[in-house]
UniProtKB/TrEMBL annotation:
Keywords: DNA recombination. GO terms for biological process: DNA integration; DNA recombination. Residues 1-92 form the Tyr recombinase domain. This is Tyrosine-type recombinase/integrase. It comes from the Bacteria. InterPro entries: DNA_brk_join_enz, Integrase-like_cat_sf, Integrase_catalytic. Transmembrane segments: none annotated. It comes from Hominilimicola fabiformis. One of its GO terms (molecular function) is DNA binding.
Amino acid sequence: MKAIEHGSGFLINRKGKFIEPTVYARRYKAILKEIGVRDVKFHTTRHTFATRALEIGMDIKTLSEILGHASPTVTLNIYAHSLPEHKAKEMDRLGKMYNPS
């Protein structure tokens, strides 16, 4: 079933019917199983996306708009999680500022 975008912001199928969220959930679970990844909630991908986007330097305003949040504060408070390796990298950067070698 190939989806087409409808002007309302919802996805509809070729017959003009809205695609139910359960369709996405089933397909997501099937893809995870197919590629050998443990079953994780789909919403987890949103958290991962937000965190990784910030780690590569995406500005918070842009990310917030992509995620559809009312403000960047929502994005930072709910979806952006700093990973240990990113924290270590940033601390190294700060250390080099004070002790360049």
